[in-house]
Each structure stands twice: as C-alpha cells, then as structure tokens.
Here is the input.
Amino acid sequence: MNIQRALVLKKGKEVSIQRFHPWVFSGAIHEADGDGTDGDWVCVKSIQGKILGYGHFHDGTIAVRVLIFGDTAPNSKFYEEKLKLCYSQRLNVGIITDQTNAYRLVHGEGDGLSGLIIDIYNGVAVVQAHSVGMYNDRELISNALKNIFNNQLTAIYIKAPSALKTTQEDGYLFGGGTIPHLINEHGKKFLVDWETGQKTGFFLDQRENRKLLGEYSRGKSILNTFCYTGGFSIYALQGGATLVHSVDASDKAIALTEKNIELSGFSNEQHSSFTVDTFEFLKDKKDQYDIIILDPPAFAKHKSAKHQAMKGYQRLNAEAFRVIKSGGIIFTFSCSQVVNRQLFYDTIVSAAIQSGRQIKVLHHLSQPADHPVSIYHPEGSYLKGLVLYVE
Here is the structure.
C-alpha cells in the first residue's frame, strides 16, 4: 500500500485511537500533510508527531476508518493475515460445520476491518464494501480470499458502496455463480440471491434465533412477518409447526420464500404466503397465532430518524400484543444500529403497557458469533431481540 498522506489530530483527540476505537471523526483532524483522495490509505498522527495508526480516508463525518493501530505500516500481506484470523475464529467456535456452509467471514469493525463485510455461501464469497477504501482494495481482498480458501471458492462477488453506484457496478471479481444458489444452515436448505437480494442475499445474523424458534414451534400456528426469504418459516415448519403464514410486502421476497418452502418439501396445507403490508395483514387476525415473529427492516438508519423509528416499533409490537392468542409467544427484533438495547426494551415495555396484557421476557437475543462485536466498538452491537410470553 502506498501511503503519501498523514492526518494530524487535534490535541487530546488521540485518546479514542489509543483505546482502539476505529473511527476518526472529521472534527478531530487538526491538519492534513499531503494531498489525497477519498479511499486512500493514510497515516494518523498525534499533534506531537507520534504515529497512532493507519487506515482508509473517507470524505465524510467518519474521516478515517482505522485498520492498524500503532506504527506498523500495512504490507502486501495485510488482508491475507487478517482474513486468516477471521477464518480461524469461525472454525474455533464451531460455526463452520458439515451442517452449515453459510456464514459471515468478516464483520467490519468486529473483525478489525471497518467498512468490509464478507459472507460465504457454500463456496461463493460475497464482498460488501461499505467504504471507498475497501472497494479500491477489492483485488487485494479477492487475492487474499483465493489464497486462504485455495480451490474451495467458485466465485467472488462484490457489492459497491452506495456512494459509488453511479460510477461503479456490482460484479464478479472471480468466477461466476448459479443464481439462486443453494446453502445449508443447521442442515436446512435455502436459496440465496446475492446479485439482486438485500444486503449480501441472506440474513445470516438470525441463524441461532431461527434455531431457537424451531424449538418452540411444535404443534403451533405461526406468523412470520417481514419474512424476506422465509428463514424463520422453514425452521418453524421443520420444528413441527402445524401452520405457518409468511408475510412480506415484496413480491420478490415472497417468490423466494415459496421456492425455499418447496425446496424443503412442505405443502400448501402447512404454509401460505401473503404479499401485503404487515400492519394491514394484522388488522383482522386476533387469536389466530400461537407465535408471531416481528423482524422488520431497520426503521432508523440515521439518528435523525430515531424518534419515528421508535413510534414504528411501538405500533408494530402493540398490534402483535393485541392479536396474539393468550399464552402466545412473540419473537421481536430491531436491527437499527442507532437504536440501543435499552431504548428498544423501553419501547417494547411502552407497547406492552398500551396493550394492557401481562407479558414476560423469556430471552434476550443478539447476533451470532460470526458477527462479533469489538469490545472497543460497542456500536457494532446492532441486532437486538426479545422472546416474550403473552398471558
């Protein structure tokens, strides 16, 4: 990596880097030494001239995503060494098994690679670049993946940052793929479409929460709202649910859900899909379901939207509390990073009070071990969930 630019921090602003937080905000920069462009590797220094770290420059609020702490400059093996560590961790904690061949290999700041997501789907690596710097380094990342996985990868696909969509396109860095692509998760089969699907094509972060739902499903009637590809629905059916309804406002999502249901061999008598808004669907469904899953998309992607998001979560959960059977169970989630765990919990309490029903917390849920959170970057804990018993 060619580093021709240094950013000098204001006095006292070096503390966050010394505490291993990977973000340098634009307001912390005193001056820039040298010229550069968005996405360049840069050196970060204290006002005394001490090298604090190296990372990608970004022309925005987060001015630098620090990838190396300390004075050791990056070399040509940087990505290969980092990805080897990520792969070893997934092996060591038992995520990669004969029953599961889809997992997150790199989870941004949680793996010390701010701006980078890599998901592995049964021999296909899907790279999501959330920064210009990571997109610029795509060939280095691709070569590192090929070296680590040897001949086990059939394709590497990259998704460009939204800021670059007008000038750069998503596409294959290596090989090609069969769309949709078959994966196994805890022995259950799913089809994944990374080319046109949301995020990288499948929500791997709900793997263990789907498994927990399956353990609650025997003999139950279940409603899976915001179903996307039908992940929770498959686990419910294989767990012995007598009836599952999958709801999503997207025709495309429902089509993929139905393909996954068919793939698992379930009949129309056991499962039905509905292309409709969740709030509209819930209007006349009182006392029909033993279990309801509420897994909406992020209601708030920015702090400015937080207030409206909380009103949305409150309304959604209050509706579910209103319609669920007595003795029913609700799996409710928020994937909004700007909504912290306590705020989400307080919002669910507000919805419970509004419903007038007695409600107990059975489980606090989060993201799985292949979506780790750096202890120095608590912002990485984005997925929050509760399992609630409604009397």
Remarks:
- The CA atoms of residues 68 and 310 lie 36 Å apart.
- DSSP finds ten helices and 20 strands in the chain.
- The chain has a mean pLDDT of 94.
- The chain has three domains: 6-69, 78-185, 203-390.
